[in-house]
C-alpha cells in the first residue's frame, strides 16, 4: 500500500515520467449507481493515461436482474483490458471477477470504497507530509467509506478513530479485520459511540447521514446524528488541522457549511485526487507500471 501511495504521488507530480501506460487499452466502466466524481475522474484519468473508457449505464436496476454478473464479466473480458464497476452489492463485484480474466476495480459497493480512501490518504500525505503516525478520526454513519479508510489507513500506519451513533456502527467483521491490521502495523484503533471519546486527531472525516436511496425522514436522522456534526467547535476540541468529506455533502447537516468553505477544508483536494489515486491503480493493474 505504501508503494501504491508513492506511485499516486509520482503520477500526480511527474506524469511525464510515465508516458501513456494505457496506450491501446480499453476500460469498461459499468455503473449501477449514479456518480459525479467517480465517473468523470475515471473517464478523464484513463484518457490522460492514453486509454479509452466505455461507459455502460446500468442504472435503474441491479445488474443481476438483467444478466448474471459472471456472464457479464466473461463477455466484457472478451474486449476490455479491465472493468471498473460501481455497484450496490459487493457480491456483484465478486461475480464479475469470477467471470472475467481481466482486473475488476471496485469503484464503490456496499462494503468498500477503496479508490476514495487512497485519494484521501494522498491528500493527507500532501498536507501533513506523511501518513504514518498521523491520526484520522471518522465521525458519523459507519459505512463503506469508513471501512476502506480503516483498512487502507492501517496498512499505511495511520492511527484510527471511528465514532458513530448507536445503531450505525461499522460492519463487525470489518471491524475485526481492521483491528487485526492495526495490531500488525502498530496502529491504534478506537471505535466508540460517545462523541466525547473522540480525543486528538490530525484530520476529522465525515460523510453524509443520508446515503443514496435512503428514505428515512430527515427529522429522524437529525435526532440521531445532531451531536455528531463536524463543525468548527469539534475541530478545535480535537486539535484537527483539516476536515475531509467524500461528497456529496449536505451543508449544515453532517458538516457546517462554513467549515466546508474554510481553509481547513480538503474536500476539493480529495475530489482532485480521485483521478490520481485511480490512475495509480490503473497504471499498476493494466499499464504494467511496477511498484517500488
TrEMBL record:
Organism superkingdom: Bacteria
EC number: 2.1.3.3
GO BP terms in the entry: citrulline biosynthetic process; L-arginine biosynthetic process via ornithine
InterPro entries, per the entry: Asp/Orn_carbamoyltranf_P-bd, Asp/Orn_carbamoylTrfase, Asp/Orn_carbamoylTrfase_sf, Asp_carbamoyltransf_Asp/Orn-bd, Orn/put_carbamltrans
Chemical reaction(s) catalysed: carbamoyl phosphate + L-ornithine = L-citrulline + phosphate + H(+)
Gene3D superfamilies reported in the protein's UniProt record: Aspartate/ornithine carbamoyltransferase
One example GO MF annotation: ornithine carbamoyltransferase activity
Aspartate/ornithine carbamoyltransferase carbamoyl-P binding domain segment(s): 2-125
Pfam families from the UniProt entry: OTCace, OTCace_N
Domain Aspartate/ornithine carbamoyltransferase Asp/Orn-binding: 132-285
Keyword entries, A-Z: Transferase
Family stated for the protein in its record: Belongs to the aspartate/ornithine carbamoyltransferase superfamily. OTCase family.
Protein name per its UniProtKB record: Ornithine carbamoyltransferase
Lineage: Bacteria, Pseudomonadati, Pseudomonadota, Gammaproteobacteria, Alteromonadales
